[in-house]
Amino acid sequence: MTAQPSEYHRRVAAQKRTSIIEAATKLFLDSGYDGTSLARIAEAAGVSRATLFKQFATKAALFEAIVTEYWKVDSEEEPLPEPGNLRAGLETIGRRYAALLTQPGMAALFRIVIAEVPRFPELGEAQFKLGKMPYFESVRRYLAAENAAGAARLDDPEMAATQFLGMISNYVFWPRMLLARWEPDDSAITNAVDQAVLTMLARYGAPGAHRV
């Protein structure tokens, strides 16, 4: 019978995993995906090669873990809003999305993918399938639920989700890819989310959807 790891060992393993992901992200950005070896990542993370290989057998597996980590949303701590109040639900989702896009490292992750995808298309696929699409699908499901509850009137939840997330990311995130000093403050980000919510309410809200 195999003994279960103690809380201490689980905590140490989680700390090492975080160190590996942070070191790999920085090295991928500085030296490129192809120019970074697992050995260099282990050294930068301050862990042994055996420890790194135990958690990530390949560089591709490590990159997938980075994507999953940055796009992670704890569904238990942050469940989708209950349908019935479209304005409140969109405000909640919009603020979460803005926080997700502005977290440290997210811009770096996109830069890695954009720089390397011509030679390593699997990086783009990982970013799309493991990161963006699961999150997008959760927003699409929410809008479909609002439609079923009668709080929204929309024929295409997928297009509505694209429009809502696009309005937010177009201000909060994408300028960072070109403008090194693009750092809107909290009030500007909140305003961008609020304006996106109002636009969605005007386009898709059923009578009563504008209530606070």
UniProtKB/TrEMBL annotation:
<dbReference type="InterPro" id="IPR050109">
    <property type="entry name" value="HTH-type_TetR-like_transc_reg"/>
</dbReference>
<feature type="DNA-binding region" description="H-T-H motif">
    <location>
        <begin position="37"/>
        <end position="56"/>
    </location>
</feature>
<dbReference type="Pfam" id="PF14246">
    <property type="entry name" value="TetR_C_7"/>
</dbReference>
<dbReference type="InterPro" id="IPR039536">
    <property type="entry name" value="TetR_C_Proteobacteria"/>
</dbReference>
<dbReference type="InterPro" id="IPR036271">
    <property type="entry name" value="Tet_transcr_reg_TetR-rel_C_sf"/>
</dbReference>
<dbReference type="InterPro" id="IPR001647">
    <property type="entry name" value="HTH_TetR"/>
</dbReference>
<keyword id="KW-0238">DNA-binding</keyword>
<dbReference type="Pfam" id="PF00440">
    <property type="entry name" value="TetR_N"/>
</dbReference>
<feature type="domain" description="HTH tetR-type">
    <location>
        <begin position="14"/>
        <end position="74"/>
    </location>
</feature>
<dbReference type="InterPro" id="IPR009057">
    <property type="entry name" value="Homeodomain-like_sf"/>
</dbReference>
<protein>
    <submittedName>
        <fullName>TetR/AcrR family transcriptional regulator</fullName>
    </submittedName>
</protein>
